[in-house]
Structure formats: structure tokens, C-alpha cells
Amino acid sequence: MFEGDNTVLVIGAHPDDEVLGAGGTIAKHANSGDDVHILIVTEGTTHQYGDTELIEEKKKQAKLCADTLGASTVHFGDLPDMKLDQIPHVEVNSVIEGVCCEVNPDIVYTHSRREVNLDHLAVHESTVVATRPGSGVSTVLTYETPSSTDFATDIDGFNPTLFTEIEEYLDVKTDAFNCYETEVREYPHPRSTESIRSIAKARGAASGCRAAEAFDILRAYR
Where does residue 136 fall: left (phi above 0), alpha (psi -120 to 50 degrees), or beta otherwise? Predict the structure, then answer.
């Protein structure tokens, strides 16, 4: 997966989802020479906080985060935060399909379907549509989102089938996450630097290395 000739698209519903779920893997892809793009589907601010002035600040933070990880571009869908379950499914599809057509990714990362956040679920479902057979995407993987995936209570919980070793990139991941100054929380909140490190170490211990990120393989064509 890290051959240096892949185009990678990481899709998140909100600013910071991408780094929480796959930050170390993004940095690893970029360091391997892969062309990495990030799509943030919503503006991530207005409906939840009622403050439109934060939109541009969040975009600046997302770009700084992407630069820290080594991603080449950040795309913004600008759909309403916390409302993706209330707008037509086809509108979310259109945003994701549009970016897929623009960057033509080989590998796509997106949200798990095991989520308490309805925006995350909507992005998952629309990614499945956008990356359906014939789309040109060879591999689709889902990631876990701290403070959302881990709060879900479904019987068929997040069940990782792929672990990416990220010991070399764990500092880069936490540095990139800290670019989102408005999202960083104090430990033991899952969106804290210490928690991010703990999760990576736990996933590493589960897969025989010192630090890892966990994914579920949704589709893989070889």
C-alpha cells in the first residue's frame, strides 16, 4: 500500500476527523511518495456552535494539519455541520464523487459505519456509493474516530482487519492534531494528545508493534 505510486484520498466529515482516524497513515503514505488528498465534507462549525467566523479559521487549521502530515491538497465540501442526515443523500454523494473524479484515487479512507455521529454515518454511506465497482478505486478502508466510534454500542462493533505501523509517525500525528487548537481537549478525553498516543500504543500491542492505526477493509480489488 505504500509503494509511492498511489493516489490516496482521506475523507472526513469534519475538520480533525482525518488526522484522528488516519493521521499516521497519511504521513506514512506521503513519506513513501504517494500523492495524498484530504476531503472535509462539512464546514465543521456553524450549526454546532453558531459562529460563522470559525469557518475560515477551521480551514486554515485543516490546511496546516495537512501540511504537517505531508498531504498535497485539502478539499472542502462546505455542507452543513451536524445536518448531513437531514439533506438529500445525493448531495453528499455529489461532493464525494466530485472530488473522486478530480483526484482519481487508488486508495480511499473514510469513516466506519460504527458511529454515534450521524454526519460520520452519512459520509460512510456516500463514500460507499462514490467508490462502487467501476469507480477506479482499488481499495476502500474505514477508520475509527475517537469520541465517536468508541462510544457506539452496536453489537457488530468496529472490527479492524488491517493495522498500519506508525511508530515513526506518531509525533507527526500528534503535532498535526494540535493544529486544531479549537478541538484539542484535556486528558482523559479521547481527543487529547495523551489519548491519541494511548490508542496508537494499544493498536500497536494488538498487532505486534509499538504504535499502529487500525482499519477495516471495506473493499479491495487486486
Answer: left
